[in-house]
Design goal:
single chain, alpha+beta, 2 domains, four-stranded antiparallel sheet, 8 strands, 24% helix
Length: 186
Amino acid sequence: MSYSVFRSLTRRVVLPVLTLTFLMVATGCNSSSEEGPTGPNAPTEPLSYETVEQSHVEPSALSEEAKGRFEDGMERVIRDQSAFQSFWQDLHGENAEAPNIDFSQKLVVVAMLGERPNDGYEAEIASVTRDTNPTLMSFFVTEIEPGPNCSVSGSSVIPYHLIEMDRFSTDQVNFADNGTETKDCE
């Protein structure tokens, strides 16, 4: 093969193929049709969970340290029994024993709204979804407020919802405000 033929082949075939390959790798192009859209158009799947506890705590019942962490609200994923026990004691007192969770298979998700003016308020993790591409866990938290006919105490509270669900490995977690609902107490 002469040098001019080699040079012509390199310029017409090899370089374009290498350039195309480089661009596919650099932009993440994949010839597989299994990878779908990302972002808001990513497919989602609802996930099941069980309530561990859904209630409220009066700020006056908390230690100053716990009150400081809880009064503005918090969202948290707890992945081991030790962390769960510590959180549980912050919530229920230092002698409280946390429910036993099999953290090799499960984890606990916490949604706290922060301090509210009375005990008519509730926090609810209304749904959990996983965006499959890329993996993102989304927890949709609803605030439930008392309606005009609801009987409430004058004590401020911190509403919370704790759920147990199958373990997931991603650290990409989103807690989304699912809006406010008004409870009908008629």
